[in-house]
Structure formats: C-alpha cells, structure tokens
Amino acid sequence: MMNTQVQPRVIQTDVLIAGGGPCGLMLAIELGRRGITSLLVDAKPSTAFNPQANATQARTMEHFRRLGFADEIRALGLPSDHPTDIAYFTRYASHELARICLPTAADAVVKIKEMTGSWSAAELPHRVSQKFVEQVLRRQAESMASNEIRYGWTLESFQQDDAGVLATIRQTEGGQPQQVKANFLIGADGARSFVRRELGIEWGGVTGIQREFMGGKMFAIYLRAPTFLNVLRHPKAWMYVAVNNQRRSFMASVDGKSEYAFHAALKPGEDADSWTEADARGVFQEAVGANIPIEILSMGTWLAGHALVAQRFQQGRVFIAGDAAHLFTPTGGLGYNTAIEDAVNLAWKLANVLRGNSPLSLLDTYEAERKPLAERNTGYARLFADSVGLFVAKPELDEDSENGKAERQMASEHLNRHARLEFNIPGVTFGGRYEKSPVIVHDGAVLPSDEPNKYVATASPGGRPPHVWFEDGQSLFDLFHSEWTLLALGSDAPSTDELERAAQSVKMDLRVVRIPQNALRDLYEAPLVLIRPDQIVAWRGASDKGAQQILSQVMGHGQLK
Hints:
50% of the residues are buried. The chain has helices at 22-32, 58-67, 70-74, 105-111, 130-142, 194-199, 228-231, 277-288, 334-354, 364-389, 402-423, 426-430, 497-505, 518-524, 547-554, and strands spanning 11-18, 38-42, 55-56, 86-89, 96-100, 126-127, 147-151, 153-161, 164-171, 178-187, 203-206, 216-224, 239-242, 249-253, 259-265, 295-304, 307-310, 314-315, 318-320, 326-328, 484-489, 510-515, 528-531, 537-541. Strands 1, 2, 7, 8, 9, 10, 18 and 19 form an eight-stranded mixed β-sheet that branches. By secondary structure, the chain is an alpha+beta fold. Helix 1 packs parallel to helix 5. The protein is 30% helix and 23% strand. The protein is built from 15 helices and 24 strands. The model has no long low-confidence stretch (mean pLDDT 95).
C-alpha cells in the first residue's frame, strides 16, 4: 500500500535564529526592518516570566530610540516618578549604609537634554525588568512581514556547507520534525547554547570565582511583598542591597509596587536546590530583618563568578551571540546590553552580504569587532563584582554600639565609592571601540583612556559618534539615516560628490546630512564623517579624495592600499 502521508515542506529563510531572548529578538528586528527573512525559534512557550536583567544602559536605549520604541520601553517597569536609586543597608529594615541617587524615568527625558560631558547622550539608562523589554521586542519583531517568530519550537540539529545551513526544528512539546534551509544560523540560545556546543567552541576566561557575594551559587526568588515598604525606614529605592555577616543579598523592584526580584548569596554547604518555600521565606527574612508576608512566584539557583568569552564567535555560516558567546557576573548590567550590541553589529553585515552588496568576508569582522568588546566588558563586570563581593561584612555591622557605628562608617565609605564605580559608568557604556577592525578606516588619533566612570567623546573612527542636542531640542542622532550617513559639517564643508558617486558604485545606501554649525565640525575634528548603520564612526576626513577606496574598505571589499 502506498504511503500517502504528505511530508512537511522545507522552510526557506535567509537567517535562522535560535533563541528568543533580547539578542535573538533584536536580530530579528534589525533584519526585518531591512526586509531580510528570518525564522526565530525558542524552546520556551513565550518570552521570559522571571525578571532576569534589570538595567537597560544608555547605549542600548539609543539603539531603541534609533528603532523608534525607546519611549515605549521607558514607559515600562517602575512608575515614571519612582526613584531609581541603589541603596545599601545592613538589612532592608535596618541601617542604611550608602546610596546613589539616579533620575526617575520622568526626570530622565528632561535631564538628558541638559547634560554635558560624559553624559552627553540621546538617552539615559532605564531601570526595567528584561521580561518587559522582551515583550516589546517580540511585538516589534512580529510586526515585520519578513519575520516568523516561533516560541515553543526547539532547534534539534543542524549541518552546514558552503551554500548554507540545513537544520531540523520541532515543537518542544512533540510533533513532526521540520526542516529549515537557511543561508545563516545564529545561536542566540543562552549560556548553555546548543549551537556553541555543537560547534565545539570552548570558553576562554575564568569561571568559578569565589566571593562572599556575587561569586558562587546564588538563590533567586521572584516574589510579591505588598508590605515591604511599610518596614523600610529610609526612602524607597529601585535596588536594595543587604550587607551583613549573616546573608548578603540584593533585590530590585520589578513594578514599583509589590513585585521584587530577590537574589541571595549562599553559604558553604548550603543546598538551595532542595529548599522549600519555607526555606525561601527564611532567607528573605534574614535580608529584610523583619518578618513580612510574601508570595513566591518562582524560585531557583544560578551561578555567579563568570567572566567567560567564547574562543570563537563564528564557524562558517554559523554564528553565536549574546550569552552563547559571553557570560558575565551581572554587575553593571553588562550581559544583556552587550548582547544587544552583538545583534546590532551582526545584523547590518548579514543584510549587506545577503543583498550582494558586500562579500561573505564582511561577516568575519563580527568576531573581530565584538570579541574584544566582550573581553573588555566581562573584565569590567568582574571589577565591579570584586568591588562589592570581596568586601567583608563583619558581625559588628548590625550592632547598636560604638563598634557597630564605626564599622558602618567604614562600610558606608567603601559602598558609596563602589556604588559610583558600578552604577555611574558612561565610560563603559559609550567608550567601547573597534580598534583593530579591518572595516574601520583608522586615523591614528590619540585616544582618551578607557575608564569605567568617565567618557571623553571622540570622533576618531571605530567608536560611537559624539552626541549633541540642537537648540530646537532635536538630537543629532535623530538625523542619522537608518543605513549609512555622511555628515558634512560646517559652513564651508567640502564637496561630497565623489563620495556620493562611490556610494552608488558599491551599492551603499548613503544619505548626506549637512549641518552648518562650525561647533559640530570642531567637535568631530573633521568636516566629513561617515557613520555606519550601527552608529559607529567608520571614517572621517578633510575631503572626499579617495572615496572609492574608503567606501570599498568599510563595505568589506578590502583595506586601503
């Protein structure tokens, strides 16, 4: 008897994305807005339930602004007038030790237009749970006709050759396997990445770093505590850090009302994986210093003490990004924000190659640019974790005695310094550079030092363009084209004709933006500046002489001779 069962069709797509967290979703958005077809699969039934990352840094907010939904993100999470302070206590209901005060969401959109120096930017950071961000990113990705987003689907296998990738996916709850043919596969599938393991890519860096806090196994509770603010003796904050000899912990407000993400360090010998809800309540009570009722929404363990970067980010037509490529201890909020920049960097390059505008070798620059930044950022996260985690909390901190008062004074001085080290980081946020990239036309300028808490703007190619606000309240970044932008600066800017002709010959989607203010030309130290689609300076110069070579290099056709 003939088998008449119809075989499922093979899905054809430009890019297969494994992983529906912020990195995978951002990839889908960046590809979708360029009309590149993508299929995203994630084994989970939907976006994250647990809060996970809590800080969207200013550079990430600038990318969300570029894509048109920064205001939507800023409206999420805490109420607009809720403090975003980070405060340190012996216990949440006891002595306050240190605090860094930061703008509310409502203040941020006003204050950013008045800020200069290190914080001259289009956006300030925003304190919002990753679970809310993912929901916006998913809606954005699903709104694009060229994207197909499938939660509840698992990548089971893949193989590649010179022509592309053949993969098998299946519904997580079971069902028939489905074959996918893609030009490229991106593993944005998290710390335990199936894609990375299948490629045999090992980690580099260090793990298992032990600290009194933020090193080793941590216990997490997602909870509701409607009466928490009733026992708080000090002004409310966004993040509450408990520093005592009994139980180190931190807790971030999720909704500004009653939901919190609580994380506690474990002591040697504790087996938190077997803890009951009663155990969880006991740990929470140790940090609060008072017995208040809580509703536990979820609980589990995770491991701090990572500073890992994959030894490779690419093998042939398969790439890894986000937590699949780098693992952080989550100080400074750098893991999620580094993952967003991975997606932004890789997406425009994939689009150029798929459109036939750039050679396949352009994609080699993804690892060349992003791997050094991942190593830099994991290093900063480790510095912040050491600063807070290696601080020894003595038993006397809790005492209402002269010894206790003296210990709290010493702790206050250290933690106030630490808070500014970890949470006022324009240098980390804006100062990353692609110094050895073959698609940047480097000019050899003397660069500012790379410091976490200080950012000195420079338009030297390889970094973020310096930002300014115009008198009419418009951001310079809002004038940039969605693809390539050529800034012609000053009242006597030179001709751009040769660059415009060269752009046509190399199929570069280029827009010339003329700004007559001489002050901006002085800031950029050149009258002509080329900005990439990911808002990175690719080249600057005094004239458009040699335009063909310049644009060929930045599009991946080869370096200047």
